[in-house]
Automatic annotation (TrEMBL):
It comes from the Archaea. Pfam families: DUF1405. This is Uncharacterized membrane protein YpjA. Keywords: Membrane, Transmembrane, Transmembrane helix. InterPro entries: DUF1405. The keyword Cell wall biogenesis/degradation does not apply. The keyword Oxidoreductase does not apply. The chain crosses the membrane at residues 39-58, 70-90, 97-119, 131-151, 158-178, 203-227.
C-alpha cells in the first residue's frame, strides 16, 4: 500500500476500485480531489497567504499572551501552514506522514470549530462586517474540504496519527483545561467566558465542547481511513 508521489500519478480512486474508501470517509467528487492534487502548488500558495493573514489576525492575542504559549495561539494559521507544508513535501516526492496527519487534524478541527463558533455567537459578532464574517465562515469550511483530499497522499500510519492527536490534545489542555501560565488561551471570543449559553452551559463550555468533539472526529476519521486502507491492501494480497 503506497501513497502517491509527485510524479503526477494520483492515488486511490485511480487505483483498483477495491481500494476506494466509503463515501463517509471520501465524500468529495473525484473531480474535486483530482483538481486539488493537480494544482497542489496553487493550493500551497493559497494556504500560505491564509497563514500570513491568520498570523496578522491573531496579532492582538499574541501581544496579550506570554511568549511561552505562542505556539498554541494561532490555531487556524498553523493548520493552513501544516497543509501547505504537507502538500509541498508530497509534490517534492518526500511526503511526511506526521505532517500530513497534523494537516488533516488541523483543517478538520479548525475548519469546523470556527464556523461553529461564528454561529454560536452570531449575535455577538456584529462588530465584524458581513464580508469578513462570511470570509471567515466559508474559508474555514474550505479547510475541511482540502483536508478530505489528504487520504490520497498518505496512508495515515498510527504513529503519525498519534503525533497529530498529541499536538491537538495539548492544544485542548492549554486552551480550556490546564492553561499552564495564567488563564486559558483559546481564541478570543466576543463574550465573557462565563456568559450563560444554551443547555445551561457557559461560553467557555460551548467552545470547549465543540473543539473536543472535532478533535475526536478527526481522530476517528484518520484511524478509520487507516483501517480501510489496510483492509483493502489485505484483500488484494
Amino acid at each position: 500500500m503506497t501513497a502517491s508521489t509527485s510524479s503526477g500519478r494520483l492515488t486511490d480512486r485511480e487505483r483498483a476500485d477495491g481500494e476506494s474508501l466509503p463515501s463517509y470517509l471520501a465524500p468529495l467528487p473525484t473531480t474535486v480531489e483530482d483538481l486539488g492534487l493537480r494544482f497542489a502548488w496553487l493550493v500551497v500558495a493559497i494556504n500560505l497567504v491564509g497563514t500570513a493573514f491568520g498570523f496578522w489576525y491573531y496579532s492582538g492575542q499574541f501581544a496579550e499572551t506570554t511568549a511561552t504559549l505562542w505556539p498554541w495561539v494561532p490555531d487556524s494559521p498553523l493548520a493552513t501552514l501544516f497543509i501547505a507544508l504537507a502538500l509541498a513535501c508530497w509534490k517534492l516526492g518526500r511526503e511526511q506522514p506526521w505532517l500530513t496527519a497534523l494537516a488533516f487534524f488541523g483543517n478538520i478541527v479548525l475548519g469546523l470549530w470556527t464556523p461553529y463558533t461564528l454561529l454560536a455567537f452570531a449575535d455577538s459578532y456584529t462588530y465584524l462586517s458581513p464580508a469578513m464574517y462570511n470570509f471567515l465562515f466559508w474559508s474555514h469550511l474550505a479547510m475541511v474540504v482540502q483536508a478530505l483530499v489528504l487520504y490520497r497522499i498518505s496512508d495515515f500510519p498510527v504513529w503519525a496519527v498519534a503525533v497529530a492527536a498529541s499536538w491537538y490534545w495539548s492544544n485542548l489542555l492549554v486552551d480550556y483545561f490546564v492553561p499552564v501560565v495564567g488563564e486559558p488561551h483559546h481564541t478570543i471570543i466576543p463574550v465573557a467566558r462565563d456568559a450563560a449559553m444554551f443547555f445551561e452551559a457557559d461560553a467557555l463550555g460551548v467552545i470547549a465542547a465543540g473543539e473536543v468533539s472535532f478533535v475526536l472526529l478527526a481522530l476517528f476519521l484518520a484511524l478509520t481511513i487507516r483501517v480501510k486502507k489496510c483492509e483493502a491492501a489485505r484483500s488484494r494480497s
